[in-house]
Amino acid sequence: AEDLAAELAVGCLWATARVRALGLYRRSGWVVVGPEWDKPGVGPHRYVIRRISARPQPLRRA
Fold first, then answer.
1. What values do phi and psi take at 34, rounded to 5?
2. In this structure, is residue 41 part of a structural domain?
3. How sure is the predictor about 53, in pLDDT bands with cuts at 50, 70 and 90?
4. Domain annotation covers residue 60
5. Distance CA 51, CA 30 (A)
6. Number of domains forming the structure of the chain
7. pTM of the model
8. What number is the average pLDDT over the span 45-60?
9. Does a structural domain hold residue 45?
10. Residue 55 confidence (pLDDT)
């Protein structure tokens, strides 16, 4: 998803992340934003965002 976003120059991605997985997201360059909220049947979540830099050349498609 990140490579495609860079190719399309969308600027940033967002996702919902389980609170217990926030360390993984942070280590991967995501930033946690907003308050914690409960996703019914799943548990506590936060929103995460990551800025994407545009790539100068298009990706090769398989």
1. 75, 170
2. yes
3. confident
4. no
5. 8
6. 1
7. 0.72
8. 78
9. yes
10. 62
